[in-house]
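Mods, move this if it's the wrong board.
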Amino acid sequence: MPEPILEVRDLVKHYPLTRGILFKKQVGAVKAVDGVSFSLAAGETLGIVGESGCGKSTVARMLVNLERPTAGAISYKGEDITKLSGRALKAVRRNIQMVFQDPYTSLNPRMTVGDIIGEPYEIHPEVAPKGDRRRKVQELLDVVGLNPEYINRYPHQFSGGQRQRIGIARGLALRPEVIVADEPVSALDVSVQAQVVNLLERLQGELGLSYVFIAHDLSIVRHISDRVGVMYLGRVVEIGTDTQIYDHPTHPYTQALLSAVPVPDPGARAHRERIILTGDVPSPANPPSGCRFRTRCWKAESRCATEVPLLAVPQALPPGPAAHPSACHFAAEKQVVPLPGELPPPPAPLTKE
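Not the wrong board. Structure tokens:
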């Protein structure tokens, strides 16, 4: 297997909780990210899903070095970028760019579109000569589907989808190899979401980009991702291909997450068992011992309170799509059980050989 372009190992980010005004004393820590590991291959899209507050955006900000990790390593082409600074870090940042979540607040309202997209050239003047920058900015506008003549307009003159395209153009300005997209379509209408996702897919094919794609919408993540990682309370609890995660989930949290996805087909909806989790999400300042999902899990036993489950392929599972990394002591596919008063699923139709 080729070496991954981006590799994350045991990534940790704790925010200190302090008490006092003049003499501050640390009394605890918010464990936003607590031991996340994954890898990203060249040309691959890794989707990251999970409920609000699980640490997805914190991971994204650490990947582009907007946040310094408390512990762990982020390797870009074999080099740990968490230890870089100055010119070395500046050079790496050319190749790892970010598309932010909110297209309304991530663009400076006092700058024109040309200044916003061309600002990376001011920081990295070696990428584009000064006299050539206007032409490059207009080319980027054309690449993302905007009129190059919009170069002198301001962000308030654009719709939400157009603003997100401007954010994507800014991320492409330095021709990066990796783009971290932090919920790039969550603030957009459904039709505009489809346009932006199709744009990202087209650019990936044309430019050979690698994506870390973070989103709440599980259908969008499945559409664009090659592999999917599921996060819960600062940790990755399950990771695998889109088929493994969506069709053969083995972690109870992933199963509950997928059971909440609306199904447009009434026939399929009637035969699906909805998993309702009890209790609230624990505080990241005081997470449960052992398995962090045990306080809401219907499979939890005494072992779950004392042993931290490893993110690994369960040995008890037979070879097949269900055999993928899952951080659960009792990882297994959930059997579909009809709800009371409903008919069982119809048998599969016979096929003539």
